[in-house]
Amino acid sequence: MLLKPCDPTLMRAVIALFLATLMPASASELQPISDADFHFAGRPNLQQVELGRFLFYDKLLSGNRNISCATCHHPTHETGDGLKVSIGEGGSGLGVARDTGIGASAVASRVGRNAQALFNIGAREFTALFHDGRVEVDPHNPNKFLTPIGDRLPDGLENVLAAQALFPLVSVDEMAGQIGENDVADAVSDNDIHRAWGLLEQRIQATPEYVTLMVAAYPHIEQARDIAITDVGNAIAAFTVVEWRADESRFDVFLRGNDEALTSTEKRGYELFYGAAGCSQCHSGSLQTDHDFHAIAIPQIGPGKGHGFDGHEDFGREFVTGNPSDRYRFRTPSLRNVAHTGPWGHDGAFDTLEAAVRHHLDPIRSLNDYYLSSQIDPSRSDLDAKDYLVQGSTLRRNAIASRSELNNTKLSGDQIQELLAFLESLSDERSLSTDAGVPQRVPSGLQVSD
Questions:
Q1: Looking at residue 43, what is its pLDDT?
Q2: What's this model's pTM, rounded to 2 decimal places?
């Protein structure tokens, strides 16, 4: 008896089903990303998005009018700045070319952590933002947010991303500036965050083009005095959600049923990631994050966050919860576009993705072998002197090591390369390395780029 040739479509379906039975459950249950997974499901409010675009790139929102959100989160640097730890207010230039400024207006300190990539942080599953999760949805009231200022957050914020957007504006090292330099910085120094936000509101209200844009974007705004800082946060969030949604990678095509979207090497990496390598224990789901906080013995470099006996340590999640068991825990980042968003780690400790992957395999050895003389750029002697105080202390390095939650994992060199190949498949080229969305001008009339 002659057998009829099998329908190729049916054959691919059978093969895919067979492969699914070989995959670990965490992989076979992955679902493609859809519009419903984002805060702005369906058609976005284009007026809000375009308003948010201007605000994101406008230095008007900084105390000294010399830095914007985009300075540390620029599309030409994959929504980061390419630096280990950022140079905020007082510096000049973009990305790795940024300097620390000159004279009395120079930066007082580096920012204590790496500038996080913005890809997909508008997805609904993100309920906590910043490396330590200090701005998060209140688990007892999804319409409220837990923040460093408690219940003093103004009402009217649409989502946690909008709440998060307000805090860099009132950070002295990020956008507000130092005491005595401007009225916003002075308000922050007085711990009067509402007055600081109010001063920024007044700047927007006094800019005719922003008033026109606000009236067009929000039905509740009829005139300048109706504009509130919450409208600023909501617009920046709307822009971020739409501009840096990244779900068109080859991995996404694979999740939507095209088994040929990944190479054989990438598929082996995929199986390792969601299986024997154990990566998905923390980097779970379609966005590769459990949204939890873990201590993984990342070397501590940079100025720290004001913690510890001398202020140079970074205790991570503990500073938010007050729970000593949360010391050195940081939020699990999503891995979308991860091959392009270095340096890696909450303080940018690793210059290559391979180094970051290898750290996870043997974290204590990586911590202790970390190359102390690798300079944090841009160099400045007084700032450099602080960069390795914690990492250079055996006592404090041992404290970081003692909290590590990772077990050693043995992988061959080939397996590591397969993992890296899979991580590359998470890249959405459409969302990467483009400045097409950067406005040529902003309503304030200030210079758009440094």
A1: 65
A2: 0.92
